[in-house]
């Protein structure tokens, strides 16, 4: 019986650590998914039916704070504009970094047609405020 239990546990553990894209990622308010791209860059993939602009900044702020341990007064920079995801199958993903564009290794530098622009920045604390907008349905 111990052998079966250990085997079942191993299978469950491996299933819980994988996703469709092979990245484990980080999930925040409203199902906003964040995946690391490189040591400097992370990608935020907004879920459909959310205010995408708010979702991108919410994900960036929460990830920087909770996963990277960045203080509220640290800056988050856009290093790749909105478009198809590199780490997921999302149609609406953008890349962020705690380093400015040009200093963030692994950034796509992609230009998009909507959303935050390369070089745009927010304080971590201010970016997390966008999660309240998602939670309470407030947009711009």
Report mean pLDDT, rounded to a whole number.
81
Oligomer kind: single chain
Model regions low in confidence, pLDDT < 50 over at least 5 residues: 1-23
- Determine the fraction of residues in helical runs and give it as a percent range: 25-40%
Q: Give the biggest sheet.
A: 6 strands, antiparallel
- How would you describe the shape? globular
Order of helices and strands: HEEEHEEEH
How much strand content do the residues show? 15-25%
Structural class determined from secondary elements: alpha+beta
Question: What order do the helices and strands come in, and which of them pair?
Answer:
Elements: H1 2-16, E1 26-28, E2 32-36, E3 41-45, H2 52-67, E4 75-83, E5 93-97, E6 121-123, H3 124-135
Antiparallel strand pairs: 1-2, 2-3, 3-5, 4-5, 4-6
Task: Describe the overall structure.
The protein is an alpha+beta fold and 140 residues long. The protein has one domain (23-135). Helix content is 31%, strand content 21%. The protein has 3 helices and 6 strands; from the N terminus they run αβββαβββα. The chain has helices spanning 2-16, 52-67, 124-135; strands at residues 26-28, 32-36, 41-45, 75-83, 93-97, 121-123. A hairpin with a 4-residue loop joins β2 (32-36) and β3. It is globular, with a radius of gyration of 16 Å. The model is unreliable at 1-23 (pLDDT under 50).
């Amino acid at each position: 019986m111990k052998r079966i239990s250990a085997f079942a546990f191993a299978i469950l553990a491996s299933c819980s650590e994988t996703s469709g894209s092979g990245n484990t990622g980080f999930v925040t308010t409203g199902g906003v998914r964040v995946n690391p791209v490189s040591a400097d860059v992370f990608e935020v993939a907004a879920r459909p039916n959310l205010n995408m602009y708010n979702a991108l900044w919410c994900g960036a702020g929460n990830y920087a704070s909770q996963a990277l341990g960045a203080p509220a007064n640290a800056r988050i920079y856009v290093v790749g504009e909105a478009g198809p995801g590199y780490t997921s199958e999302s149609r609406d993903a953008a890349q962020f970094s705690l380093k400015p564009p040009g200093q963030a290794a692994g950034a796509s530098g992609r230009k998009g047609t909507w959303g935050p622009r390369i070089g745009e920045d927010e304080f971590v604390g201010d970016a997390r405020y966008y999660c309240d907008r998602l939670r309470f349905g407030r947009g711009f």
